[in-house]
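Re: weekly structure request thread

Next one in the queue (848 aa):
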Amino acid sequence: MNKIGDIYANKFENFIFPFFWMHGESEEVLVDYMQKIHDSHIGAVCLESRPHPDFMGERWWADLDIIIREAKRLNMKIWILDDSHFPTGYANGLVKEKYPDRLKTLLTHRVVEVFGPKDSIGVMTANIFDPTARLIAVYAKQDDKIIDLKDQIDDEIIYFNIPAGSWKVYLLYESRKVDYNPDYINMVDKESCDVLIEAVYEPHYQRYKEEFGRTIAGFFSDEPGFMNEKGVRNDSRIGKLMPLPWSRQVKEMLQLRLGKDYLLQLSSLWYDETCSPEIRHVFMDICTTLYKECFSDNLGNWCRERNVEYVGHVIEDRDSNARLGVGAGHLFRAMAGQDMAGVDVVLNQLIPGMDSGEHPTFRGTWDSEFFHYALVKMASSLGAIDPKKKGRTMAEVFGAYGWYEGVKMMKWIVDHFLIRGVSYFVPHAFSLKGFPDMDCPPHFYANGNDPQFRYFGDLMKYVNKMSTLFSGTKGKPTAAILYHAEAEWTGDFMLTQKPARVLTQQQIDFHILPNDVFTFKDSFLTVLDNYLHVNGYEYQCLILPYCECISEELAQFIIASANSHLRIICIDALPSKLFNSSNTDLLNQMSHVEVVKLDELSHYMKANQLHHIEVATSEPYLRFASFAHEDGEYLMFFNEDPLNMIQTSIQIESDKPIYKFDVLNNKITKVEYDGKSFPLVLSPYESFVYVLGEIDASIVGTEVIIGHKVKVVDSPYKVSIANAQEYPDFREAFTMEQLENLSLTKYLPKFSGTFRYETEVQLDQDINAAILDLGRVFEVADVTINGTFIGTRICPPYHFEAHNILKSGMNTICVDVTNTLDKQLRDYFSYGEEIQPSGLLDNIVIKY
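Done, posted below.
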């Protein structure tokens, strides 16, 4: 296992490209920041153009020349965020300026209710609230009866006879009245999407083509979407009374799928009618397919033809990943053209321990269950099953949490992503603006004002080492969960995160699969033999979250699986309809499908051995993933509980020895393993990689045995302070007899920086092997004993090995504790979150 040895020796590749925010700063600042980023073990940057004053202008090119020069000097790569405004789709204003006919077009409607029988009643055709609206269809409808009034479509008032009863007159319009981002491209129109290439991509290529595939690695799209409406809670689910995406291509495909009278069926898009499931599916299928082809594939193909890559992510939160509005309708299709799958977590969407209910923030609430149990797995599943992505998934992380977010929380977030299959990271962000920049903090380095920045490089080294370790490996999911998009479009449904939570809490790995793997089998290399195989991954069971409707293709696959070992599980009930076929007899051929209640799914999976490992105790916050490689297997375990320790044992049968690799602290030890199980102890925030297979003995350390003696250091502490600019020059402040939160009003409530605690302890013997336990620390700790530096901890557990340092007699202990900038700076993003204490809260304990 040469890779283990390389990583142990701090040899690793780069998997990080943080956002780099320029505001027109001087060359000196650009050079300084590039150096600081390089020195933080980061080998690339992603230039975010949003704050730049002259994107695509002379100042932009001059700044980019400098950055490319520095990147080449430092052997770094550059990614370019692909628009001047957020989100991607503005095309730097070119679509409005040069191609107004390619701006977004929407399908709108209004309804007039009439009651008959009556002769020669009139309906006004003009939409007086929308002067851009052009009438394209008008018809009266009563249940399944339709009167097409298209022959009078050009009249200002249509007169017609109406039969008995209540009728609704539907008037459909093509509209250019857009309430949200009106100057953006139309995602269902290829010529419109081409404007983004003309405005941003081509000029970069023409100027720097020799750097494409060398210094310039590719382009990044940030949260593009349909934007047919903004939405209040991103509730733009098909069936809502809202304008809808529209273009010539949409019309052509609707006519092809629904026939020449397709317009007469479109009221089903907004109102519940007999054919609503079919019509809504057809419409969403068309729109998301066009989004894929016109935007995602279009940009990705352009990049690959020029030897660069295309990455990014869409808006996923508040269930918009399968909806219109700010969403892209179908997460898997929206990123189909990218070379990596992508996802982001910002704005306190992911908080340690808060995995249920709605998490309130200053901007509303977040569905905690979705962020903890579904979001990352959606993206990493796409990275795994799409051959183009080569197993790669990228995550934008840390952004807009506020200054209260330090490296402790960042490490937890990183592990949350790593264990779910993410290996590329875009930290958000390095801002070059003068301090303090209140635009979506925290900002790393912050012109030398971030007291924790000297530890940021340690975290980035950890990220790169873990990503290097897992690169080229392959997960071993037991289960596949059907993505809920089509089910949501067509009827009653259950969100994917419901069964995902159950499996995650039982340490059962899984992928989330879109219906497309059954419809486009060749694209995903989908095969059914004894089990389900997608792009080389094997799944022993397929779980369908409750869905009223499924596709004919999925039904055919389920029927074919009857003679295999693949288990098909429907949560709560069987589907009762097909949304794209009238052959309902298919549903009667699914007798082998098992119906399992959601609250019984965990027991079912365990009873049927649908898991890779077995955990001796119930551990809902223990996270697990397996990464197979040609020489063996890596097992990653992570304690996501921010407060409680996990002590259990793992049952797994292997004929290989097992080693524990503490990558953060670069320590490898052999595990006590009897061929069936091994012990697992994880403190909050702690993660280990267990290596199955032989390792070079020269890098394997010895597990030091600590005795049962305990010495509590209860001497007074001399406390001195230094902010980020002053460090390491400290100012003496006061002496503490009793440790407590130093951000209390009586101490230093507005101080951000480092607290130095100096104390003494009398020992009656030399101690060869000891552990210093600092207890609760907020939040980064450095420890020096008798003048010898013994280590840094950026997160729990705050345990330090002190071997052959503590002597008989008086010993001096110095602990530097660095807090976060939220004490000094108040910001909106921290406003809705708990404020952590500062400093040491417990007496130091020596265990020996």
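The mean pLDDT is 96. Residues 761 and 811 are 5 Å apart (CA to CA).
Next request, please.
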